[in-house]
Amino acid sequence: MQAANRQTLRWIPVVFVLFPILILLGAFMRSVQGGVLSNLEAWFYPAMTLHGVGMVGVWYVASMAIVADLLTRYVQPSPAVSSFALWGTVIGVVLLLVSVFIGRYAAGWYFLYPLPFKGEWPAWSNVVFLLSLTVLGAAWLVWTLDLLRAIARRYPLAQALGWHYIAGRSEPAVPPAVLIATVSLISGVAALVSAVILMVLFFAEMFAGVANDPLLMKNLTFFFGHTIINLAMYRAWPPPTRSCRTTRGDPGRPTGSSRSRGMRCC
Ligand code: HEM
Questions:
Q1: How remote is the CA of residue 48 from the centroid of ligand 1, in Å?
Q2: Global pTM?
Q3: Using a 6 Å cutoff on CB, does residue 131 contact ligand 1?
Q4: pLDDT digits (tens, 9 = 90+) for 130-145
Q5: How much distance in Å is there from the Cα of 28 to the middle of ligand 1?
């Protein structure tokens, strides 16, 4: 068992605090649906919005923290960027709470265009909600790019993607965790860039009166949302692949290291 690095340890309380609160919101919604708390029905959709965005967000950052932790075994991500991502996440969550609890924002985790402009919530709560997603998206994009930068400093892209294996070469050995991280981080960049474009279009309509194409807005929203939640699930894979080592050792670690010897498999 190897200790997690300090950066990773800072993310653990974020997940352990937010997850139970979000579960309570889920239980609250079920209670409203079951008629136990029917007097709080007006809070159902704000709670659903916070629960949906929160659950997806919390597991996304958890998956990023896992990837970052694994990568520190092989490459050197920037601790400053990790802190930036943590504070960006905290600020994004605070903005989300303001929009939902004070503004009663209730467009749901899909916030499907043009619903954000049509609800009963005040216009400012829509601005704060979209600002929250902008801050979260920008912080996670910078974090993702930094992890890719760290990988690129040690492994050229073709190696990090394992293309030399396809060409029939077995050297250099690339740790499976690096390969999976690279693929998932590149997909993450695509998803987060799509989110940034989406936010720009929302703000363009809000402040410059530019009318948006509903189909484009829907596609950007789904591409961003579905990709990040899928990535959160796929990133559960690198830890098992890393503990599945062969007698050839753990590629990427110095030979002779006590961690690189012997057969240990999940
Ligand atoms: C463990 C306890 C959980 C409970 C009791 C719960 C309950 C609920 C309920 C009642 C809804 C509203 C469904 C409706 O439209 O009627 C909902 C929506 C949702 N839940 Fe959960 N949930 C839980 C866990 C999770 C987890 C672990 C995730 C993701 C990792 C998640 C993600 C979502 C999403 C994305 C929505 C849709 C929100 C929207 O449409 O805006 N939930 N949940």
A1: 7
A2: 0.87
A3: no
A4: 999 999 999 999 999 9
A5: 11
